[in-house]
Amino acid sequence: MTSRGTASRFLKSVLQNGVGRYVCQLKRVSIRFSKKAQSSLGVRQFIEEGVVDYAKSNPSTVVYVSPQACRVPKIVAEYLNGNVREEIVTGKTSPQISELLTKLTDQSGLDIIRIRKPFHTDSPSIQGQWHPFTNRPPSIGPIRPQKQRAE
Questions:
Q1: CA distances from 38 to 30, 72, 79, 103, 131 (A)
Q2: pTM for this structure?
Q3: How far apart are CA 131 and CA 137, in angstroms?
Q4: pLDDT one-digit tens code per residue, 67-98
């Protein structure tokens, strides 16, 4: 299968992140769960054990915990660039939810797509590629094979 049909872009940092100081791109996390449903058992366990530790270790991220009458527990992550990502956590345990939140925290909010090249510059060189004869003066002339001296 060719990669022409898939979206691609050049490698770049989000909002020049890392040029000055690192800014976590995750703005808000909403944990929605049911107080009584069996599918929300792991979420309720995470809220009792790990949500305070997560909030302390990520002070730039706002954490909302909202018990609602819903069948499917989910985590809604909102990023600085406006993207929203919903992850369904039905039947997951507390460590799995903690791992998922860490993954969401480390992401930039951009869609995961194919990267064209691992490098890119906004101002490419107009000089061309270097080779051994780049700076050779033209007065010397072309290079020819050495003639064998007869001795």
A1: 20, 10, 30, 25, 68
A2: 0.66
A3: 14
A4: 888 888 999 999 988 889 999 989 898 899 99
pLDDT of residue 15: 62
Task: Please report the sign of the dihedral spanned by the C-alpha atoms of residue 68, residue 84, residue 82, residue 26.
Answer: positive
Question: Which of 49, 40, 39, 30 has its CA nearest to residue 101?
Answer: 30
Which amino acid does the sequence have at 43?
A: V
* Tokens representing residue 89 in the block: 């956590």
CB 11, CB 115: distance < 8 Å: yes
The dihedral through the CA atoms of 19, 22, 23, 24 has a sign that is positive
- Amino acid identity at 116: R
pLDDT tens sequence across 95-148: 999 999 999 988 887 777 777 777 777 777 666 777 777 777 777 777 777 777
Task: Print the SS3 string covering 11-39.
Answer: CCCHHHCCCCCCCCCEEEEEEEECCCCHH
Residue 86 phi/psi, 5-degree rounding, is -110, 130
Q: List the Cα angle 27/74/37 in 5-degree steps.
A: 145
